[in-house]
């Protein structure tokens, strides 16, 4: 008498594969491009000792001379000046933790909820699925709220005004030398090209994720 084996019940082994919260390759490309552009821009900075050379300071004879000094010094100390403005912005945000948290929350919301979120993964929060248009509208409203209805906007504007004021004061009272001008006049576009490159690289990295939602 042959013994038959007990029937095997079919069991589904399919498992739901969880997708990452962001499109990892695009996000890594964005970070890589940003780091490369930042490193390239900072490599163009002038020595800080040259920026703070007390023997080079003198009072301008007229407003036109002061404006000319600002323009020429900015062409030479472009990276240093923007670094100073960035440090003032960072200090202002660090001295106001609530505004810093709001700004970081806004940036992270745009990155993880829209720009680098996989196009085939809908946003699911509080038991509700949000479409891409709804997500974009919520992020725009949140951005307007953060910048105009909290202290973030006024804090950033105040810090920028202080930074620009310091840069203009330094540029107006630092007398550029003739040799320094002859050597550096052709290189007037250095750091703006860095900013443009960083912006274009960021846009190129984010473009596929955004285009998939249009």
Short description:
The radius of gyration is 26 Å and the shape is elongated.
How far apart lie the N and C ends? 69 Å
Q: How can the largest sheet be summarized?
A: 2 strands, antiparallel
Strand content: under 5%
User: Overall mean pLDDT score?
Assistant: 77
Q: Structural class, judged by helices and strands? A: mainly alpha
Poorly predicted ranges? 11-20, 182-192
* C-alpha-based Rg, rounded: 26 Å
Please give a structural write-up:
This protein has 214 residues and is mainly α. The chain contains nine helices and two strands. Strands 1-2 form a two-stranded antiparallel sheet. Strand 1 and strand 2 form a beta hairpin. Helix 3 crosses helix 7 (151-173), helix 4 runs antiparallel to helix 7 and helix 5 (97-115) packs antiparallel against helix 6 (132-148). It is elongated and about 65 Å long.
Give short descriptive properties of this protein.
9 helices, two-stranded antiparallel ribbon, 214 residues, mainly alpha
């Amino acid at each position: 008498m042959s013994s038959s084996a007990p029937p095997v019940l079919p069991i589904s082994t399919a498992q739901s594969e969880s997708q990452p919260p962001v499109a990892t390759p695009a996000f890594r490309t964005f970070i890589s491009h940003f780091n490369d552009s930042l490193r390239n821009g900072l490599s163009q900075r002038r020595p800080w000792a040259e920026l703070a050379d007390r023997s080079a300071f003198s009072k301008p004879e007229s407003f036109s001379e002061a404006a000319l000094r600002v323009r020429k010094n900015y062409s030479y100390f472009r990276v240093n000046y923007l670094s100073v403005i960035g440090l003032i912005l960072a200090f202002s945000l660090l001295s106001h933790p609530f505004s810093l948290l709001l700004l970081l929350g806004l940036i992270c919301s745009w990155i993880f909820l829209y720009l680098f979120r996989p196009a085939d993964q809908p946003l699911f929060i509080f038991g509700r699925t949000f479409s891409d248009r709804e997500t974009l509208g919520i992020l725009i409203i949140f951005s307007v709220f953060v910048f105009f209805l909290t202290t973030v906007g006024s804090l950033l504007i105040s810090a920028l005004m202080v930074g620009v004021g310091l840069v203009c004061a330094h540029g107006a009272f630092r007398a550029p030398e003739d040799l320094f001008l002859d050597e550096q006049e052709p290189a007037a576009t250095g750091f703006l090209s860095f900013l443009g490159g960083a912006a274009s690289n960021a846009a190129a990295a984010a473009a596929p994720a955004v285009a998939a939602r249009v």
